[in-house]
Amino acid sequence: MAILTGSCRFGLWHVHVSWEGDTVYRVRFARQGIGGAVPEEIRRYCAGRPSRLTDLQSIATAGEGVYPRIYRAVRGIPCGKTAAYSEIAISVGTAPRVVGLAMSRNPTPIVVPCHRVVAKTGIGGFSPDPAIKEALLAMEREGTVCMSEMREINR
Length: 155
Hints:
Arc Repressor Mutant, subunit A, 2 domains, 6 helices, 19% strand
């Protein structure tokens, strides 16, 4: 199989995805769309419909270094919930600043839901625009996008 690329809409933004099978290699937010397919679960999520993002794998979680450990911890944050940079840092044995760096370098946002990691005193950063982070969190808090993920977590 070859790596596929495509985009779907999320509000005023386009979500560009590079992927193969159930593995996602890159996710980026951009003002312009590109042609091509996007994994069904990401399309459903961006459309505000129930999705199972946990069915997708991220290249970011492979390995035993500090960043993969951070990304795996972030994947464990339930949909609609948040965790502070310091909480993630404690769980993997590093500093909050390292968690912040890992989030800024996350190659697969949404799949590794870095928007769920917040500062103790506010929302924290998100590239290319913190408004995207706020919109993702608001959509998740409505409870419609991750219903199947939430049911799985509650089992």
